[in-house]
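Fold this sequence, please.
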Amino acid sequence: ALGRLLQVMGGTDDLKAALDIFTRLRTRAAGGVANTPCEDRDIELALGRLFQVMGGTDNLQVAWDIYTRLRTRATGGVADIPSENKEIELGLASVFTDLGAWRQFDGLQLDKQLFSGFETCLYLSIRYFQELMDVEKVLPEHLSLLGKAFHWAALAVEGSGGTNASCLSQLAHCFRLLSAWPPVKLRASGIEEKREHEFKLRSDLLFAKANDLAPHRQEQKKDERWRLKERQFLAHMTA
């Protein structure tokens, strides 16, 4: 619990302290052997999540390796097939999203999994949204990526009963992107605002609801790489 708290607090020192805690727990669970995967799934999952938060290609690769081992163990030793463990599959999905590994993400076949809750839909929406952020030159066919992001974000909001801030925020991001899309290109795809600035207003409303549900979100740093790409994307679309 202390490790998780330090992880949430963030910051270089806190993340290092969390890593020390999880590493000691892992060593103890592995019979005193350091730098060795243990049989305790909770410890391994905690380490995987921490390496994701720490970020960077090397740390994400470590997280990928951890989740892959857990997955293989969960499938009885058979590699490269989906497991029935939601935490493992979504952990891999998150790593693949951070790395932009879209082929590997799609190989998880999350849209065919019957996991309970809204999380799967949220991860799928984020996957398509962030792939769109990686596009260097926006073409008409890229609107389909935004459409898929919309589809899964709406299902996530519905699945959460409209009470999860992350789901509302994700749908808001989709509407904000739609509001910046050239109207002539939207009309060519059969999309038209019923009133002026409708998409922007919906985006603002959803962000406001998300902030009401989780006021602390406004205090979080907004320096993730995908947020920078989103700002650049919006600036390009409105230039």
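The CA atoms of residues 18 and 78 lie 31 Å apart. The radius of gyration is 20 Å.
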